[in-house]
Automatic annotation (TrEMBL):
Protein name as catalogued: Transposase
Leader sequence residues: none
Segments forming domain Insertion element IS402-like: 6-74
Length: 74
């Protein structure tokens, strides 16, 4: 596992508590994990969303998911 990613043990604890993605196409759990890693990266490093690394997906998508989780109190 690369540095900056959640280990499998931690993902098992938090993965099920993430809210379901809205929209016409649902995202598989693997994408939820990638999005969460992106959120944690931005929070840990303290960079702007536009400076987030590409490996976490589209920065706007990660930000929107972060905003939804924040609104829902996750």
């Amino acid at each position: 596992m690369a540095r900056g990613y959640l280990p499998d043990e931690e993902w098992a604890l938090v993965g099920a508590s993430l809210p379901a993605e809205r929209g016409r196409w649902s995202r598989p759990d693997l994408d939820n994990r990638r999005f969460l890693n992106g959120m944690l990266y931005v929070l840990r490093v303290g960079c702007a969303w536009r400076d987030m690394h590409e490996r976490y997906g589209k920065r706007n998508s990660v930000y929107v998911r972060f905003s939804r989780c924040s609104e829902q109190g996750v």
